[in-house]
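Raw record, unedited: Drug/metabolite transporter (DMT)-like permease
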Amino acid sequence: MNRGQEREALVWGLVGVTLFAATLPMTRLAVGSTDAPQLSPWFVTFGRAAVAGLLSLAYLGWQHAQGRLRIPVRSQWPVLGVTAFGVIVGFPLFLALALRYVPSTHGAVVTALLPLSTAVLGALWYRQRPSAGFWACAVLGSGLVLAFMAWRAGGFYLGAANLYLIVAMTTGALGYIGGARLTPSLGAEQVICWVLACSLPLTLPVTWWFAPATPAAIGPMAWLGFAYVALFSMWIGFFAWYRALALGAVRVSQIQLIQPFLSLLFAVPLVGERLDLATAAFALAVIATVFVGKKMPIHQGSPA
């Protein structure tokens, strides 16, 4: 990869990470809190995928008209299903459920471990053999996140919200791995479009079922949050991110380390949350373990 391609990859990666970083505070705006609930987490999850799915249909139709449409082969459909479960259902649903109970700054610290979780699941998927140093970083990072959750809960009681965040992080990592595996053959943009378009038979009826009975009763900021996660978090962000990964996955993946910090910063003006020193310190410690862990050697194997 030459310098021009490397620069382009880093720019696209920064765009994608910045768009994804606002997902937590925007989801918080959309679902509200337990004291002032807004849109249902189920509506936000499936509604954002339905909106992005309809846009994806139009994009795939345009690609077909241009003669550039790539149709998945039979062996790729199971991977598409795994990707859909991770990025359409698992991560956004459990994130939305969690953010009803905890601030987005809390979620940013827990999900800071997502890059390392992706690496762990990727190593298992591809039957790779991570070094002892890699596993040490994974254990240390997980321990820091557990300590943070226990500290915020006032004792070693994780609670439903933290369990939701752990499930969101795990399923999100699974979706990232599936999408990365499909990108070389289907193309960066078409991966997420195929995933979203093929999920419409599920996302459209569930969106209709959980739609608010009186939309006017929902605050405008909640609708703004929903529009953001539908257009940018679920669709346009993946265009930039997968394009960046296709250009240079190793270097670009390091940019994801700044995503938790951006989420913490966005939460202050968007949701009015307070960023305390302890939360920032935990975030920095987790990100440091992820950075070191991603530098540790992983011996290559064959995909499962």
